[in-house]
Amino acid sequence: MKKSFFAVCFGLLLMVAMFSTVSAANVQVRISGWGGSDQPIIEEMLRLYVTPAMAKEGITVLYEPIADDFQRYIVNALSANTAPDLFYMDIFWAQSLIQAGQVEPLDNYIAKSKILKKEDFIPSLLDAFSYQGKVYGIPKDFNTLALFYNKDLFDLAGVAYPDENDTWDTLAKKLEAVSKLDGVYGLALQPEFARMGAFTYAAGFKTFDQNGKSNLFHPGFKAAFEWYTGLAKTRAGVMPADLGQSWGGGAFGTEEVAACIEGAWVIGHLKDQAPNLNYGTTFLPKDPSTGKRGNLIFCVAWGMNKDSKNKQAAFKVLEQLTSPEVQQWILERGLALPSRVALADNPYFKQNNREAQANYIVFRGASEGNVVPFSFGEYGGRWMDPINEALRAVMSGEMSVEEGLREAQYRLDQEMQR
Amino acid sequence: MRRSLKEKTAPYVLLSPYLFMLIVFFGYAFIRCFYFSFTEYDLFSPPRWVGFKNYLNLVKDFQFGLALKNSLQFAVIVTSLQTILALLLAVILNQKIKGIRFFRAVYYMPSITSSAVVTLIFMWLFQKKGLINYLLTLAKTGYRIIAVFFGLFVLCQAFLVIGEKIKKRPVSLFEPSFLFLSVVVSFMATFILVKTGIVTMAEGIPPVETVWLNTKKMWPQNNRIFGISYPLGSIMLLNTWTTAPTFMLLYLAGLQDIPKELYEAAAVDGATKFKTFWYVVRPQLSNITFLVVTMGLISTLQMFDQVAIIGDQAPLDSVITLAYYVYINAFPSSVSPKIGMASAAAVFLGFLTLLIVLIQKKVVREGEGVEL
Fold first, then answer.
1. Nearest residue, CB atoms, A79 vs list B43, B130, B312
2. In this structure, are strands A137-143 and A294-304 parallel, antiparallel, or unpaired?
3. CA–CA separation, B255 vs B274, rounded Å?
4. How far, in Å, are A92, A405, B67 from residue A412 at the CA level?
5. Given this model, what pLDDT does residue B116 score?
6. Cβ separation B315–A393 shorter than 8 A
7. Which of A129, A237, A307, B328 could form an S-S bond across to A231 if both were Cys, CB 3.0 to 4.6 Å?
8. B130 pLDDT more than 90
9. What is the DSSP letter of A285?
């Protein structure tokens, strides 16, 4: 009895020792991004491509999706030294992390790499994650804005679909006509610069002028602001919040609005929530006076933790995560658009289905007219707050355009002096 | 001798887990926060001493002023409302009626429901096309029917009461059996009037589309100092509804502690129900009132979750509270954290809470003669 007890103990010890030697030889790389619709796709991507490739190198990849508020999570984790080795960086806040010295510059790694080369990536995207001449993030994908419209509602109202020849004025007429339908509004108008901004850039507005100031009374800004808020006066536009929706895609999915301005992220939402919605996609309308379009680029990159203990291994994982095969696969899942130049002529874009067509429009949005990255330097999101507030106040009829702009300019000037 | 030493140390030993928690998670955290409030700190590089700069910036910040105003309004109004409501509910639920336990459980429900869930439901209720606006529209179109019903009800009740009075029988104006009879009679009469088409719904009334949340409108209008913004007012209602039941429970416990003899003595002296409440019950509950008001003030001054959940559905300026101000400075969108500013605001909030509770304690003590 006693003998067998010792034998079992010895066996257990032996097993523990074996497993610990195995794990010692294995390097673990932690990667983190946001959850939601992203999570199942990344999990599958890791299973199909990254995990098998890395297993040969003795690297295990541990994926940690964060369900809510990724930016706050990563700031906390970095300051507490518990951050993953690789993590998402949104163009919107990447600069604050880079400036704080929390992200590893990647130039030395790229110079030695056979797989990852700078010239393979769309230059404007790579630039967006460069700071003082160094590259801090490898863009994994990007998005621009496009006009999504509900074909059935336009047919029902007997109105021609919005198309790429539309200007602000012709689009407004179409929206107004389709909003004659019972219980349907034209366009989902989020009171946000993240949508309206595209129109201000079309009209020639620059975020910061030569003196580093922002002038909201720039004629282009004012024209775009007037047009955008003007839609809310009739049923041609409606704020999603008034329909109890938190964003345009939500209202579009429930067919309360006939059109919305979103990026490719709406495709996944519609697939889940409104699989039978018969929608089409086109470019944002042109400014009738300049004849140009504007757009915003939303982009996410992989960044490396400056304090990571396995930087070499982490870079190997990064190579896999942004490899051509993985990007091709991600593209076909319809989540986001690839950041590699070579994928531009991809046959996927030529397919005759609404998802591929929507992706194509979003992809081409990056090279049509005045395209500006969605970030506001050192001021961050607080740059937009006064403008968003003015948009909401004017659209709900609490202020005139003039009053709204004056108050926004005042608050913005205060913010920039802080 | 040994025994008494044991007796002396025993309370400290028993308290030690709590004291440990208090020192580590409150004492230490507070000292750190106080130190950070004099520094510029982004969580990454070491804190840089800046003296009173953060506090000066607070005074200059427009949004801080709004947060202070909203927090004070919220604390004063919600604390008063929830205290009154809690007392009322407790008095009602302290009666000896069949099934009172069921009603106690029902009225306690809002307190144990998650505030996130309740806030979401409220957001639906207060939408432009939500239930609140629907009920208002209904009331507006059916105002004639409602008026006829109430008119008949008052007439009927008056008729019954006066009839009894003429017969020289003692009867209260709100005699329950008469109230019931009046409701039934006036309901039936109104129903007949509507069916025969004598009383009709108003026509051509546009639906009420008041925006409750997504607005900066104030009530009273254009009063920037005392006006309450619509969204904050909605949150006040919501918060009162969810917190009153907890305090109701405290009052209920207090009510059951009042000796029966006091009621009997009051009855012998011929006190009315109201007089019994005012001169017997209310003073007996003053300790509990102090507790309820203090806890109410502390929790309302630190209200955060409901503002956070309402999020983009309401403009930040009209709902921002001090606790939320601390949060958005600690984690601003897309720029590095401003821990210094957040700490300064947190320290300010802490001292403000202390000050208000002290004032309240002094007022209650002098007003009620409570010994605390």
1. B43
2. antiparallel
3. 15
4. 18, 10, 18
5. 87
6. yes
7. A237
8. no
9. P
Closest CA to B182 of B150, B218, B157: B157
- Tabulate helix, strand, coil % of chain A (nearest 5): 50, 20, 30
User: Which residues, including other chains, have CB under 8 Å from residue A73's CB and lie 6 or more apart?
Assistant: A32, A66
Strands (E), A171-305: 185-188, 237-238, 257-262, 279-282, 294-304
A226 CB near a chain B CB, below 8 Å? Answer: no
Q: What is the bridge-based pairing of β-strands A134-135 and A370-373?
A: unpaired
Nearest C-alpha in B relative to A396: B215
Q: Where are the beta strands (DSSP E) in A129-251?
A: 130-131, 134-135, 137-143, 146-150, 185-188, 237-238
In angstroms, the CA B41 to CA A101 distance is 14
pLDDT per residue as tens digits for the range A37-81 = 788 889 999 999 999 999 999 999 999 999 888 999 999 999 999
Of the candidates A338, A317, A325, which has an alpha carbon nearest to the alpha carbon of residue A50? A317
- B334 vs A376: CB contact, 8 Å cut-off? yes
Write the residue in B42, B124, B313 that is nearest to A241 by C-beta.
Answer: B313
Interchain contact, A392 vs B335, CB within 8 Å: no
Q: Judge: B332–A381 Cβ closer than 8 Å, yes or no.
A: yes
The residue of A90, A92, A96 whose CB has the most chain B CBs within 10 angstroms, and thus the best one to mutate to test that interface, is: A96
Contacts of B121 (CB under 8 A, 6+ apart): none
Q: Which residues of chain A does B213 touch, with a Cβ-Cβ cutoff of 8 Å?
A: 241
A398 touches chain B (CB under 8 A): yes
Amino acid at B346: A
pLDDT digits (tens, 9 = 90+) for A205-221: 999 988 889 999 999 99
Two structure tokens written together for B79? 């604390």
Q: How far does CA B257 lie from the centroid of its chain?
A: 25
Residue B286 phi/psi, 5-degree rounding, is -65, -30
Q: What SS3 class is residue A162?
A: coil
Q: Residue A362 corresponds to which tokens in the numbers above?
A: 């979003």
Q: Tell me if B251 sits within 8 A of B87, measured CB to CB.
A: yes
- In A125-144, the residues whose Cβ lies within 8 Å of chain B are none
Model-level pTM?
Answer: 0.83
Instruction: Report chain A residues whose CB lies below 8 A from the CB of B45.
Output: 100-101
